[in-house]
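Q: What does the predicted 3D structure of Peptide chain release factor 1 look like?
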Amino acid sequence: MAVSDARLAQIAARFAELEARLASGTLEGEGFVAASRDYAELEPVARAARAVQTMRAELASLAALDEPDAEMRALADEEMQALRGQLPEAERALAIAMLPRDSADVRPAMLEIRAGTGGDEAALFAADLFRMYERFAAEQGWKVDVISANASELGGLKEVIAHVAGQGVFARLKFESGVHRVQRVPVTESGGRIHTSAATVAVLPEADEVDVAIEDKDLKIDIYRASGAGGQHVNTTDSAVRITHLPTGLVVTQQDERSQHKNRAKAMQVLRTRLYDLRREQAQGAEAEARRALVGSGDRSERIRTYNFPQGRVTDHRINLTLHRLPEVLAGPGLAELIDALTAEDQAKRLAAMDD
């Protein structure tokens, strides 16, 4: 999809205007925040547009060159050929930069992992997945804060909810939602047989109070004594909180903190994020249906990836990509290749849809 020269000029003019406004020192408060956000969103588009403009201008200049010297003319033709080879890729990069963006892409995310079928082995696998995302987050310079965790007796995780903050967290992790399957010999298996277990991953864009207004009358809040592992405060104080959102039936429980107030605040953070995700799905409608055709729905009922330990491979079933580098994926670095491939597939399908 080639962008017209007039459109390139519009992008350049808009970016120059934003630069001038921010440099003027006259913007304050919300005006400065809004202009800064617009600048950050437009900057990659303007950079890609500038590259296309430069290439087109150089091609036009070389084509108009009236050079009688045969050797110089040959050099000019060679340069033109190189630019013609580079221009389509620059135009594609611009088209990708101009694709409509999910407004949630820049947000932090709530990462929820739950053990599925497979008992203790599923909980151990859920813990492996969480460590994988922790390592990947560390490489990206993100911060991971555990909101709640329910450990199994063997050191696995029946459930863990964590807040992940940093640059472009949701954009990078949003395709991780779904069922992750593992095939390996469990530590509890004495006969050496390979078992299949699963864990579900959900990645939700974080919401704040501005996004989702929750009225007190819509909440049922139960306070009770915490149970399970947790230290001296367990079963001694009424610090655990269960919040039910009556209009939707969503239920969030939190008991990891000693303080009832802290547990309530964390539970409200999780509830707000789940409500925001629910409303996003409802608002997207047909767009959500289209995304399901690209790289999967992200629904937790959909099997998206298999981690096969005996063969040392990871297969993403949505794009039929297999990497024979299982340890590297679980260690964090290899996960980036899977995420990049999913992002590229999504971009390619959306570009194709725009051309149709």
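A (community wiki): The structure tokens above were generated from the sequence. The mean pLDDT is 83. The radius of gyration is 26 Å.
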